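[User] At your convenience, examine this fold.
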Amino acid sequence: MAGTWVRIGIGVLAGIVVAVIGLLALGTFAASTDPVTSGNTQVANSIMLVLAIAILVAVVVYAVVEYAQTGRIRSITSQFDTRTIVLIPIAIAINIILGQTVSAALKVPVYLDSIGTILVGALAGPIPGALTGLLSNTIWTFILGGTPLGSPYAWPFAIVAAEIGLLAGIFGRLGFFRSRPNTPTPKLLAGAAVALVILAALGYWGVLPAFTKGVTFFGDLTTVNSFFVVVAWLIAIGLVGAGIGLVALLLVRRDLGVAFIVVCGAICGVVSALISAPISAYFFGGVTGSGTDFLVAAFQQAGSTLSSAVLQQGLISDPIDKTITYIVVFTLLQVLSRRFTARFPQGEQAVGLIGSD
C-alpha cells in the first residue's frame, strides 16, 4: 500500500509540474464577454490540451514508478481488458448522442453527457473512466465538429469529463454501486431520509425554479433534427423509468444502495461544478448553449457577478445532473446480468459479488 501512495504522489507531482509550465507558457488571458467571437474558445482549447498532456504525463510517470517497484504495471493494464476496450467506444457514443440531444432538444438544467463515462468508470476503473471522458469530449469537438453531433463547448470541459470518470472508478472500486437489498428497517429509513433530503433539495433549488419561470421539458422542436427529437422522447421515457426503478429498489427490495448512489452523485456534481465554473465564466461568458444558461442569467439579474452566477448555476445543475446520471447507471447495473458485469476488471466490486455485507 505504501508503494501505491508513493507512485500516486510522484505521478500527481509530475502532472502538476507539467501543467504549471504549460499554463505559464500560454500567458494570461481576459474573461470572455462574447463566447463565440472573442477568441477565448481557442485559448480554452489550448489550456485543456495542456491539462490533458499533464494528465497523460502523470499516468506515464505513475506507470514508470510502478514498473521500477514491481517489474510490471498491472494496476493499469488490469483495467483494460477486451471488454473494457469494446465498451469505451460504445460509452463515448452514448455520451455524445445523449449530451447533444439534451443541448438541442431539451431545455432542462442537466447535461446527461456522462452516463457512458460513469458506466465505464464503475465497471473498469478510474483510468478507463477518465479516458472515456477525455475521448468523448475530444471526438465531440474535433472529429464531429461541423456536424449535427459536434459541439465547440465539449473540449474545454474535457478535464471535468475526466474527473467524472475518475470519481466513478473510485466509487466503483469502493463498492458504492453495489446493491444492498433487504436492509434492516432502521438503516433503510436513515438512508432513505438522506436520499430524499438530497433529492428534494436538488428539485427545490434546481428543477422547480426552471419550470416556474416558464421553462418546459422540451424546447422549440420545430427546427430540431428529427433524430434528436426521437432520442429526446427516449430520454424522457428513460428518466421516468429510472425514477420508477429507484422507488421500486428502495421500497420493494429495501435496497440501501439507492442512498449510497444518490450521495455519490451529489458529491461528483459538487466537484464538477467547482472545476467547470471558472471554465464557463472566463471562456464562454456563462453561455454554453445548454438548458442551464437561463440560471446564469437569472442569478446575474439578481445581482450576482458573472463568476458567482456561473458557480451558483453549477452548484445547482451539476449535482442534479450527476445524481440523475448515477441513478440511471445504478439502475442499469441492476438490470444487467451479474455474470456479464462481473467479467469487467472491477465489475465484481461494482455490483457486489465480492465484499458484500
Notes: The longest helix spans residues 40-70. The chain has two domains: 1-72, 81-357.
